[in-house]
Amino acid sequence: MKLPSPLLSGTLVRRYQRFFVDIELPDGSVVTAHTPNTGRMTQCAVAGYSVLISESNNPKRKLKYTLELIKIGTSWVDTHTQRTNRVVEEGLKSGLIESFEGFTMQPEYKFGASRIDFYLEKGDEKVLLEVKNVTLCCHGTTACFPDAVTTRGQKHLRELLAAKKLGYRAIIFFLVQRGEATEFTPADDIDPVYGRLLREVVAGGVEAMAYKTIVTPDENRVGERIPVVL
Prior knowledge:
Layout: E1 8-16, E2 20-24, E3 30-34, E4 50-55, E5 65-72, E6 75-78, H1 84-94, E7 104-111, E8 114-122, E9 125-134, E10 136-139, E11 142-145, H2 151-165, E12 169-176, E13 183-186, H3 192-203, E14 207-215, E15 220-225
Parallel strand pairs: 3-5, 9-12, 11-13, 12-14
Antiparallel strand pairs: 1-2, 1-4, 2-3, 4-5, 5-6, 7-8, 8-9, 10-11, 14-15
């Protein structure tokens, strides 16, 4: 999907109170930008990293700037979690994610005590697909999730397993934003319960998929599929 344009370059000074980052612009001035990400942003929100921010002309906004991308090494990382599902939706519709051609799609599907990100249907095949945004690498080029204990994520895994038992095709989908990633694994050191549950639900028939994104200052789109190592 296309990113806001134009984007302004800057250098990350600090992140604080979860939703705020101070950014130094090329002229030396410092602005505060909104951070649309509730996670820890470990390895991303690092002082000195290059960033791209967008500017809003909406007078009702408290902060006119939004953090869009952070550069880690040679790759841009999209930390804007409100964009994640839209990237996956475009990938599903455009055929960048394999095996979903011709499916109808319903976002935010109510199932059990959760809202699953996508319900897909084609003929007799019914699919529930839950998306997780991945910005952390635990070991070298191994991407991992979560970056903090996630009881909500654990609940989603249990719901997917329940759906599988009812005859749905159930998928946990990891959208990996790290360009250097070559594989995905659960972050057992951070949330061992999530890692254990992921292995249990996969053993029970839930599918685990991981796809990397291709992120540029102009767009974010689904790229290649990478192995899930459990």
